[in-house]
Amino acid sequence: MERLCGVDEAGRGPLCGPVVAAAVILDPARPIVGLADSKKLSEKRRVALAAEIREKALAWCVAEASVEEIDRLNILHASMLAMQRAVAGLKPAPTRAQVDGNRCPQLAVPCEAIVKGDALVPEISAASILAKTARDAQLLELDRKYPQYGLAGHKGYPTPAHLAALRAHGACEIYRKSFGPVHDVIANPPLWTDEDCT
Questions:
Q1: CA 82, 54, 108, 3 torsion-angle sign
Q2: Where are the beta strands (DSSP E) in 70-198?
Q3: How far apart are CA 158 and CA 181, in angstroms?
Q4: SS3 state at 38
Q5: pLDDT in tens, 70-105
Q6: In whole angstroms, what is the distance from residue 45 CA to residue 129 CA?
Q7: Alpha carbon distance 25, 180 (integer Å)
Q8: Rounded CA gap, 98 and 8, in Å?
Q9: Measured in Å, how far apart are the chain's first and last C-alpha atoms?
Q10: From residue 48, how far is each of 42, 44, 145 by CA, in Å?
Q11: Residue 194 pLDDT level (bands cut at 50, 70, 90)
Q12: Contact status, residue 73 vs residue 177, Cβ threshold 8 Å
């Protein structure tokens, strides 16, 4: 029996936190209605679908590559590593894989890269939804720990507000030091922070 797994990642562009990947094998006997590119869905719909995917999929796995791995390997290779970990975590194992984008990680099964696959292949859509919701949940946790950066709002992406907060407070350990804006702040740290003024 063929078991196709869809693979996608979330969090390549943000300045902080891990990059998260998911792999999903859907169960033909338990269809899930409404699968689509996670970026096209509302947050509420993504969360509801993620719960349904975890319940109904034949297999699913969420994995990540750490900030340290991103800085050591670069973001592309760290993304591939997270994808490898997600596929390796599937039980039962897939017989082949389809990955969103134009590059495949090295896997133990045949793999095909599909540009815009998260909108075209239900398995990749499901992986996209799991990766995005898992990473968003991580950023909400980090926001509670580091409220000064406003992570709950921008999810770590380099918005003007995030860049301003980064310049004001400096880069703590959750930041990707190899990313330009973070590297610049580390090279030119703030002369003082809000904490110094209280």
A1: negative
A2: 96-100, 111-114
A3: 8
A4: helix
A5: 999 999 999 999 999 999 999 999 999 999 999 999
A6: 10
A7: 37
A8: 9
A9: 65
A10: 10, 6, 26
A11: low
A12: no
CA 64 from centre of chain: 8
Per-residue pLDDT at 109 exceeds 90:
yes
> Does position 136 have pLDDT exceeding 90, yes or no?
yes
Distance from C-alpha of 176 to C-alpha of 192, rounded to nearest angstrom:
22
CA dihedral 189, 192, 194, 198 (to 10 degrees): 150
Distance from C-alpha of 136 to C-alpha of 154, rounded to nearest angstrom: 10
| Per-residue confidence (pLDDT) for residue 152, from 0 to 100 | 96
Query: Which residues lie closer than 8 Å to 24 by C-beta, 6 or more apart?
Result: 5, 6, 53, 57, 59, 60, 123, 126, 127, 130
Report helix, strand or coil for 126: helix
Task: Give me the pLDDT at residue 193, please.
Answer: 54
Residue 17 is which amino acid?
G
Q: In what order do the strands lie in the sheet with 4-10?
A: 59-65, 19-25, 4-10, 96-100, 111-114
